[in-house]
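Late entry, written up from scratch paper. The run itself happened at the end of the previous shift, but nothing got recorded in the book at the time, so transcribing now.
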Amino acid sequence: MMIKNKTGGVSKILSSVITAFVIGLLVFVGPVDALRLQLDGLRNTPYQLGEEVNFVGSIKIESNERVGLNNVSVELNDEIVCTFTTSGTILSGCQGISVSLLSNTAQFGYGYGYSTFQQNWTGSNSSSNAGNYAGYGYGYGYGYGYSNGPSQLTYNITIQTPQSYLNFPGNNELKLISQTSTQTFNSRTERFVLIPPTGNSNIFLMGSEDGEALFWGRFNSTEHTMKGEVIWRENTAIRRNGEGSYVVHNPHSGSFALRFYDPNNPSDPGLNWTGAYGHDTWTMTSGNSTLQGIVYLAPR
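Output as recorded:
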């Protein structure tokens, strides 16, 4: 006859429950604030056209977490204008933008990871807690983080104005974006203002009506010459410089003669255009072709 050990049975059951509970804690972690994106360093006073807009972007990963970050992006006025790797290497876009990795305390490795995240704030992306994300972790995975204290990726980012994706003059909305294999996360929305330059900066700026192209540079008010470059938003590989002369008719209007050419091709003869500006608009012709657009800053 077999006699059962009741005490041993209870001990085994209790041990199994404790083991299952510990495994559950390891596999199912959350919710916690696992990831926070942030922008710092933008000044409150307006930036003048021609200035650099410099700021710091950071991605903070909480203690003992592993987050699989694929890339990082800068969003300006609801458009992704620059995408780079976690090490700061440019992937796409970034016309007029430079990025450098300032610090990295979030080492890449193997550990507990997250498969889904939940936003832990309500309201718009302009709210004070935007960029904090709570999540639940399932299983293991490669990613950044996993240390005894919070780890962080920090970037120095500079935008040289003007650019076609910037509102000039006016407000510009900026966000830092981070992409994982399953989701996209963003910082809160920060804003900066771009205004015409003051003093003797001698900058002109003209754009196409649809905002796809900008022609900007400097003018000499003594010799009445102007020289600059053309920027295309949709095709940044194309480069054209423009130079010529202008005549001021009154404080709000004038005429000009310009030659546009490829600066990467020394044998390019370029194309000559003549035109006029006034009442915040411009037109110019070359042969049978006519172009028109908006004057932001006129030579004077």
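Residues 82 and 94 are 4 Å apart (CA to CA).
(Scratch paper discarded after transcription.)
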